[in-house]
Amino acid sequence: MAQKDGPSSSRNHGDPLAHRTTTVEKGPFCTAQCSCGWRGPARRARSLARTDAEGHVSG
After folding, report:
1. How far apart are the C-alpha atoms of 16 and 21, rounded to whole Å?
2. Rounded CA gap, 42 and 12, in Å?
3. Is the entire prediction scored with pTM above 0.85?
4. Inter-residue contact 40 to 53 (CB < 8 Å)
5. Buried/exposed 9-29: b ≥16 CB within 10 Å, e otherwise
């Protein structure tokens, strides 16, 4: 069963909900996802998935 980690960050460019990121676990992998539809690569470490999410939000 997939588990969700809490929101990693959100970008406030007029709409704070435009980029709400979470991490989702599936088996041994963790993936960062965003409310805008973006999805990062599968990672074995949650910390790397969170870093991917931060990079998406800031970039």
Report:
1. 11
2. 26
3. no
4. yes
5. eebeeeeeeebbbbbbbeeee
